[in-house]
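Side project, low priority. Logging it here so it doesn't get lost.
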Amino acid sequence: MAKRSKKYREAAAKVDRQRRYSLQEACALVPGLVCAKYDESVDIAVRLGVNPKYADQMVRGAVVMPHGTGKSLRVAVFAKGDKANEAREAGADVVGADDLAERIQGGFFDFDAAVATPDMMGVVGRLGRVLGPRGLMPNPKVGTVTFDVAKAVRELKAGRVEFRVEKAGIVHAPVGRASFTPQRLYENILAVMDLLVKLKPASAKGTYVRSIAVSTTKGPSVRLDPAEVVGQVTKA
């Protein structure tokens, strides 16, 4: 195991590993755990009581963060004609059709998210092997395959975050930056948790939200009390 830096050890000393923090306590604590010289991302990891190998227990969704993520996304849009114009007017960084597909096949990946109109999915589908592993494949389930490209672009630019449960039953999502106020982090995390609770599969048995941890990019994680956080969601 790699030796931890002095900054990391100092940050870790501020966290009680035996404790499960309330959401408000964690949001107040996490920004002080920064170990890098840049404005670290704050991320949440939620372990769910689901088995993703069963289709009816696959949890995936998208949420527009109330306060954004602190990152400006580059958005690519597959569209033609008026829809291409709408995408440009909404702030899309790259817009195209077959020409964009050719650029991507040639190694162009200078974008963070992709949107496509349904009529372009024949072209986009052929890019599945290169877009899929990078998490860039447009998907109707999260609203990135749509004729309302302007709305999709604006939401992505505003801080729309997509997530899906991984093999181990864990959902990861960025919820802001270390420079965010505790209240902004609190409201962003609440938005993610609210959607996760609503997405609980009917076939999920036992405790649904098993554990929650929040951390900065380089800092130690803070474990939350799942029952308290879910309680905050149901109160909101």
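Brief comment: The beta strands are 41-48, 60-64, 75-78, 94-96, 113-116, 160-164, 170-177, 209-216, 222-224.
Revisit when time allows.
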